[in-house]
Amino acid sequence: MNYRAVAKRLLQEHPQTISVALARLESTHASEVMKLLPGFIQADLMNRIVNIDQLPSEVIEEVDTLLNETMIR
Fold first, then answer.
1. CA 54 to chain centre
2. What distance in Å separates the CA atoms of residue 73 and residue 2, rounded to the nearest whole number?
3. Which helix (DSSP H) or strand (DSSP E) does residue 71 occupy?
4. Separation between Cα atoms, residue 60 and residue 62, nearest integer Å
5. SS3 call for 72
6. Looking at residue 73, what DSSP letter applies?
7. CA-to-CA distance for 59 and 56, rounded, in angstroms?
8. pTM strictly above 0.90
9. Is the dihedral of CA 57, 58, 61, 63 positive or negative?
10. Distance between CA atoms of 20 and 37, rounded to whole angstroms?
11. Which domains does the chain have, with CATH numbers?
12. DSSP string of 3-70?
């Protein structure tokens, strides 16, 4: 996985979308991507990840599509 490409692409998204995307990745990949994100957003993202509840399947499908498109490029 190209962590820099994923981080760069995720920075174009809303913090809630970023947190859902990171939560959907394997923890090893998520931590590598998180390291590449600016420090000022890391704490916010961690808070959002911890507080993610049940999400509609449509949201998860959209985030999965975003991740798949980013990893293919």
1. 16
2. 9
3. helix 57-72
4. 5
5. helix
6. -
7. 6
8. no
9. negative
10. 15
11. 3-72 (1.10.220.30)
12. HHHHHHHHTTS-HHHHHHHHHHS-HHHHHHHHHHS-HHHHHHHHHHHHT-----HHHHHHHHHHHHHH
Q: State the Cα angle at 42 between 57 and 6, rounded to 5°.
A: 60
Q: Spell out the per-residue pLDDT of the chain, length 73, in tens.
A: 899 999 999 999 999 899 999 998 999 999 999 999 999 999 999 998 888 777 788 888 888 888 888 776 5
Residue holding tokens 């449509």?
Answer: 58
The CA-CA-CA angle for residues 15, 45, 71, to 5°, reads: 70
8 A C-beta contact, residue 16 and residue 49: no
Please report where in the chains the tokens 């507080």 appear, as a residue. 51
* Residue 21 structure tokens: 């995307």
Among 7, 13, 65, CA closest to 35: 7
